[in-house]
């Protein structure tokens, strides 16, 4: 005599609902952390864009044997990449200098940078860094970018060394 044991056992509707609720709770807890991570990545990306633009201006100056620079408009959160044609080497002169491109700082509409603070030497009063054909910069010092949102505070420190024109992203703090 063989007794066949067939199991009619499966998952009940209650067990399925409990499983869906647990997955929903876990997802609800993960979404804010994911949003914070995305904001941190966008902040770091915005700062890398500034460093990249400065390095591009320096590279163009060396390869083209001409002065190139970046002008920062802190109110509009834009940076203008230009070839220097005017006489004043420490500033951006829209009437004389050839504008190559204008980009927003921090993505679309400057969304990821609330404001930029500079603590640069006196030659940087015009908010422009111009790189000479030997790679040196007419101004140097520090650029701080700051992001303030409900979820995080970020500060980045970009340094430009005038004698060599070297640009570094030294520190990025995200809290």
Overall description:
It is a single chain. By secondary structure, the protein is of the alpha+beta class. It has one helix and eight strands; from the N terminus they run αββββββββ. The strands form two sheets. Strands 3-2-1-5 form a four-stranded antiparallel beta sheet, covered by helices on one side. The protein is rod-shaped. The N and C termini lie far apart (72 Å).
Short description:
By secondary structure, the protein is an alpha+beta fold. Helices cover 30% and strands 30% of the residues.
CATH superfamily descriptor? minor pseudopilin epsh domain
How would you state the average pLDDT, rounded?
77
Which CATH C-level class is it? Alpha Beta
Low-confidence stretches: 118-123
Biggest sheet architecture: 4 strands, antiparallel
List keywords for this structure.
175 residues, alpha+beta, minor pseudopilin epsh fold, four-stranded antiparallel beta sheet, 1 helix, 30% helix, 30% strand, rod-shaped
Strands, helices and their partners?
Elements: H1 13-64, E1 68-73, E2 78-83, E3 98-104, E4 115-120, E5 128-131, E6 141-148, E7 153-160, E8 167-174
Antiparallel strand pairs: 1-2, 1-5, 2-3, 4-6, 6-7, 7-8
